[in-house]
UniProtKB/TrEMBL annotation:
Function according to Swiss-Prot or TrEMBL: May play a role in fatty acid biosynthesis and insulin sensitivity.
GO process annotations (BP): fatty acid metabolic process
Gene Ontology molecular functions: hydro-lyase activity
Keywords of the record: Fatty acid metabolism, Lipid metabolism, Transit peptide
Similarity annotation: Belongs to the enoyl-CoA hydratase/isomerase family.
Protein's name in the database: Enoyl-CoA hydratase domain-containing protein 3, mitochondrial
Length: 259
């Protein structure tokens, strides 16, 4: 495997990003977080990408922040910079114009669990495990809480945050943290099937819809409907909406132009 902290592979509209710190369970060093931010910025401008798959190399998905690096620095300014950078990364995932799918094997803990909660979809191996265990080391998972509380119910989020226990994939699915649990040997196949299905749709429509979802979810009901009525009107004016409707009426396959 490459020495790069982050490995990017593109194929048929699917961009696969592999966290590549296997000896450290892909913990989020400052360098890895900055590499992810830079890559998401590149993807945002790359119209050939229609969906992103985020996965971990080695034995697990991501174990959270690199605590050894943080303690080695040992200064308040560095800690603030670390958590600010992590927050910036999570917002890049949420605000990216194309969907991001987490492909999880092994552990996804603390900021690793935060990544899963920030992604649009999550597919996990039946052997994967999840936790926000900061309370066990005197460091409450406050920034992971932001993503977790927007992904699962209040009581499920507080269960994970207050107990800090490791939960299995089935429990994570019951909570709504992940979408699918599959046999470990089928994880990559299932992820690719989901990614390919999204990639086959209009990038323009998906982008409009994802960004509208992020904007409307925190609005009062009437404001959300006002916003999304405007968005659907905007969407109707695109080339792909006209193409898709015509293809549906005439029972043919649409020819997306992604505009």
């Amino acid at each position: 495997m490459s020495d790069a902290l982050l490995i990017r592979e593109d194929s048929n509209g699917v961009c696969q990003l592999t966290l590549n710190r296997p000896d450290a369970y892909n913990s989020l060093s400052m360098e890895l977080m900055k590499a992810l931010i830079a890559t998401f910025d590149e993807i945002a401008e790359d119209l050939s990408v229609r969906v992103v798959v985020l996965r971990g190399g080695g034995r697990g998905f991501c174990s959270g922040h690199d605590l050894k690096q943080m303690l080695g620095e040992g200064e308040e300014e560095y800690y603030q910079c670390t958590f600010d950078t992590c927050s910036e990364l999570m917002q890049r995932i949420v605000n990216l114009s194309v969907p991001v799918i987490a492909q999880i094997h092994g552990v996804a803990t603390a900021a690793g669990c935060q990544i899963v909660a920030s992604c649009d979809l999550a597919i996990a191996s039946d052997k994967s495990r999840f936790a926000t265990p900061g309370v066990n080391i005197g460091l409450f998972c406050s920034t992971p809480m932001v993503a977790l509380s927007r992904s699962v119910s209040k009581k499920h989020a507080m269960e994970m945050l207050l107990l800090g226990d490791m939960i299995g994939a089935e429990r994570a699915w019951e909570m709504g943290l992940i979408n699918w649990v599959v046999d470990d040997e089928h994880l990559e196949k299932k992820t690719r099937e989901v990614a390919d299905k999204i990639s086959a749709s209009s990038r323009k429509a998906i982008s409009i819809g994802k960004q509208a979802y992020v904007r409307q979810i925190e609005k009062p009901l009437n404001e959300a409907y006002t916003e999304c009525s405007r968005v659907m009107t905007e969407n109707m004016m695109t080339h792909d909406a006209g193409e898709g409707i015509d293809a549906f009426i005439n029972k043919r396959k649409p020819n997306w132009q992604h505009r």
